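Trying the structure run again after the queue cleared.
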Amino acid sequence: ELPSDPPEIRLAHCLRLVNSHPRDEHITFEAKDHAYFWRKRRAAKSVTQLVHEFVNEFCEEQAISSMRGSTNWPRPGYLKSVLSKQQEAELAQLRDTEQLRQAFQQEGRDELQICKLAHRLLARDRKDGPIAKLVAGLGLSENEIREKWAQAREDGAKEGTWMHAQFEHLLNGGSLPSRTKEVVLLAQFLRSHPGMTAYRTEWRVYAEEEDVAGSIDYVAERTDGSKVIVDWKRTRRTRLSGEAFGKTMRRPLCSVPDCTLWHYRLQLNVYRYILEKYYGQNVSSMYIVGTNPDNGDHPYVDEVPRMQTETEALFQR
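Done. C-alpha cells:
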C-alpha cells in the first residue's frame, strides 16, 4: 500500500531553470482549490474543466442499473467475494452446479470461467425466474458497486500521483532506489522514441484570450527544435480503447466520440494550441502514454491526431 504522501521531488525545477520561458513567472497554482492564477488573478477554468464542459454527464445510478440488468451480468470483476450459506444451499439444489460452486470458492479463481458457467445456468430459466435471480445475486449489489468505484477512484488518484512524481523526478535528472513497473514502461517508451530530449515537466501554461490554464505532464524537444507533448496516464487499457458506443460530445463537438481517449486527445490539443499561440512553440507530435502495470509488458501509446477545428470549437461557446 502506498503512503498517503507522494515522494519528495527535489529536482522538479531543473528543466524549468534550464528551459525557462518569460511567461513562467506570471503563473501560479494552488493545489488545494486546483486553481491557476495569472498575474495573481484566478483563471476562469483549467484545460480539463474546459473539455469536460462538452462531455455528457455520467449518471452512476443509470450505469449500475444498466450493467446489472444486461445479458452479460454477472461479469468478471463484479462477483461477490464469497457465497452466502443461503446461496450455496440454493445452488446445491440445482442440477449441474457443482462446477460453478467449486470454481467460485477456489483461491485465485477464474472469474471469466465462473461467469460463463453462471450464464450457462441462466439459459435454463426465464429472465425473471428463480434461477435468474439466484445467478444475478452472484454479482455485487448496487451499493457494493458504488463502494468499489469510489475505492477505485481513490486508489487511482493516489497511484497516479505517485507515478507522476516518479516520472518528474527521473526526467529532471534524478534517480530512484528501485524501479517500479511504471518506470520500466516509461523507459520503454523513451527508448522507442529516440531523438527527443527532455525539455519541461509539469509545464504550467496560460491562454489570455481564452482565460484557460493547465499543466503539461512532459514536453520533449526534437533535434529540429519542435516540441513533443506527452500525457502520462495510469488508466487501464480498456478505458483507452476509444469505443464510445455511438455517443458523441456536446455541440459543437458532435463529431467527436464521447469517451475517455478522445477527452484526453482534446486536452493535449488544447495544450498544443496554447504553446503555439502564446509560447512561440512548434508542436510536431503529441502522445498519450499509458503505464498501468496491468496493461501488460509494454506501454500503451496513442499518437494523438492534430484537431485544430475541434480545438477552436472548444472556445466558441
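The two ends are 44 Å apart (CA to CA). Worth checking whether this holds up in the mutant runs.
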